[in-house]
C-alpha cells in the first residue's frame, strides 16, 4: 500500500518543474499530444491560403480567450488603474473598417495589463430598412462583428490576429463591448516604438451560404463618417495593475534586473509562435503569447529541521497556478485542411510560489 505521505506528495506536485522555462519544443510536444500526432503535419501555404475559419470555430476560440482573461484578472479588480483612450476610424472598405488608437504613454510604467476593452456605439437601424429585411429574411436580423489586431510589417505582408467576435442584433443599439486584451498585448510585444494600435473591425453575415441575408450591411458604428465625429466615438479602456503598490501579486519589477539573490517572482516572457518554423501554416492563432516564468530564490528553513520528511530537497521558485493556451490549428480531415480549436494546459504561469520539491509551502516560511 502506498504511504499516505507519498500520495499527498504526488498530488501536490507542481504543474511545471522548477526552472523549466517554456520552450518551443514543449509547446510542440503538447500540441502533438492534443491532436494525437507523432509528427508535425505537412502543410504548404496553398493549404491555408483559401482556408475560411467557420463561425463556430471562431466563437469557441474567443470563448476560451475570454475565460483565460477572466482568470488572469480575478482577485485584482479592486487594485486597478483605469484609463480610457479615444480612437478614430481610419479607413472603410465594404464591411471591413480600420480603427486606430494612439498609445504613446497610455500604459503606465511598472504596470501589468489586466484587461483591455473596446467599446463601439452601434447606431439604430432605420425602421424602413428593418421592415424590408424582415420581409426578405425574417430570421436573420443578426450579424457577426469580428475584431482583429493588424500588424504592419516592413519585412512582408501585414498580418491580422483574431482577438474577439460576437453576434449583434439589428433590433438593438448602444454601446457594444469587445475584449481586446490580446491585441494590446501583441502591440506591446511586437510593434515598433510609438506605432499606434490598429484594430480591424469586420461585420459579416451570421450564416454563410446562398440563402444568407444582407443584414450585416445595416450594422453601423458611430463616428464612422465625418459628420459623426466626436459622437459616440470608439473607446479603448485599459485596466492595469500598479506593480509598485501591489507587489504582493508576485511579479518581478521590470526596472530591476533579476539576480540569483532576488526573491521568487514571476517574470514576463513572450513566446513568438510565428518565429518558430514548425508552426508555419499549422498554427493559425495566436501569433504568440505571454507565458511568464518563475525566477529568483526562496528562503530556506534552518537545519536540521524539527521534523523528518522523505525526499525533502531545497525550496525552489516554481509555478503554482497556470492557465491554458487556446489555439486554432490546421488539421487535415479527409485530405482537406480544416481549422480546429485546441487548448494546451499549463502554458501560462499565473502565480509563482516557493515549494519543497513540489510540496505545498507552510505559510510561515513564505518569503
Automatic annotation (TrEMBL):
Signal peptide start-end: 1-21
All residue ranges annotated as the TGF-beta family profile domain in the record: 235-355
Main location: secreted
Compartment(s) where it occurs, according to its Swiss-Prot or TrEMBL record: Secreted
Pfam families named among the record's database cross-references: TGF_beta, TGFb_propeptide
Glycoprotein in keyword set: yes
Keywords: Cleavage on pair of basic residues, Cytokine, Developmental protein, Disulfide bond, Glycoprotein, Growth factor, Secreted, Signal
InterPro entries from the UniProt entry: Cystine-knot_cytokine, LRDF, TGF-b_C, TGF-b_propeptide, TGF-beta-rel, TGFb_CS
UniProt record similarity statement: Belongs to the TGF-beta family.
UniProt name for this protein: Left-right determination factor
Lineage of the organism: Eukaryota, Metazoa, Chordata, Craniata, Vertebrata
Amino acid at each position: 500500500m502506498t504511504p499516505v505521505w507519498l500520495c499527498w506528495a504526488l498530488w501536490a506536485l507542481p504543474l511545471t518543474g522548477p526552472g523549466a522555462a517554456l520552450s518551443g519544443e514543449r509547446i510542440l510536444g503538447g500540441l502533438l499530444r492534443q491532436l494525437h500526432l507523432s509528427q508535425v503535419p505537412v502543410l504548404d501555404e496553398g493549404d491555408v491560403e483559401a482556408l475560411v475559419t467557420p463561425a463556430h470555430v471562431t466563437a469557441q476560440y474567443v470563448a476560451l480567450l475570454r475565460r483565460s482573461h477572466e482568470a488572469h484578472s480575478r482577485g485584482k479588480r479592486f487594485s486597478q488603474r483605469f484609463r480610457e483612450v479615444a480612437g478614430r476610424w481610419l479607413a472603410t472598405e465594404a464591411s471591413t473598417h480600420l480603427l486606430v488608437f494612439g498609445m504613446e504613454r497610455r500604459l503606465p510604467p511598472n504596470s501589468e495589463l489586466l484587461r483591455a476593452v473596446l467599446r463601439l456605439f452601434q447606431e439604430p437601424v432605420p425602421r424602413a430598412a428593418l421592415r424590408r429585411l424582415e420581409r426578405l429574411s425574417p430570421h436573420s436580423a443578426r450579424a457577426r462583428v469580428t475584431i482583429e489586431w493588424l500588424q504592419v510589417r516592413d519585412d512582408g505582408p501585414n498580418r491580422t490576429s483574431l482577438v474577439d467576435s460576437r453576434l449583434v442584433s439589428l433590433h438593438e443599439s448602444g454601446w457594444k463591448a469587445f475584449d481586446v486584451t490580446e491585441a494590446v498585448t501583441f502591440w506591446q510585444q511586437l510593434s515598433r516604438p510609438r506605432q499606434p494600435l490598429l484594430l480591424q473591425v469586420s461585420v459579416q453575415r451570421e450564416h454563410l451560404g446562398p440563402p444568407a441575408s444582407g443584414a450585416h450591411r445595416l450594422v453601423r458604428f458611430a463616428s464612422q463618417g465625418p459628420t459623426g465625429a466626436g459622437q459616440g466615438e470608439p473607446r479603448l479602456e485599459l485596466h492595469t495593475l500598479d506593480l509598485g503598490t501591489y507587489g504582493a501579486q508576485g511579479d518581478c519589477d521590470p526596472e530591476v534586473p533579476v539576480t540569483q539573490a532576488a526573491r521568487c517572482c514571476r517574470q514576463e516572457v513572450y513566446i513568438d509562435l510565428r518565429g518558430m518554423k514548425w508552426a508555419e501554416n499549422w498554427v493559425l492563432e495566436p501569433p504568440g503569447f505571454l507565458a511568464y516564468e518563475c525566477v529568483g530564490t526562496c528562503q530556506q528553513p534552518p537545519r536540521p529541521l524539527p521534523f523528518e520528511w522523505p525526499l525533502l530537497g531545497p525550496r525552489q521558485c516554481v509555478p503554482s497556478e497556470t492557465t491554458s493556451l487556446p489555439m486554432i490549428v490546421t488539421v487535415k480531415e479527409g485530405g482537406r485542411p480544416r481549422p480546429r480549436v485546441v487548448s494546451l494546459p499549463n502554458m501560462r504561469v499565473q502565480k509563482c510560489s516557493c515549494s519543497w520539491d513540489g510540496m505545498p509551502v507552510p505559510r510561515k516560511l513564505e518569503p
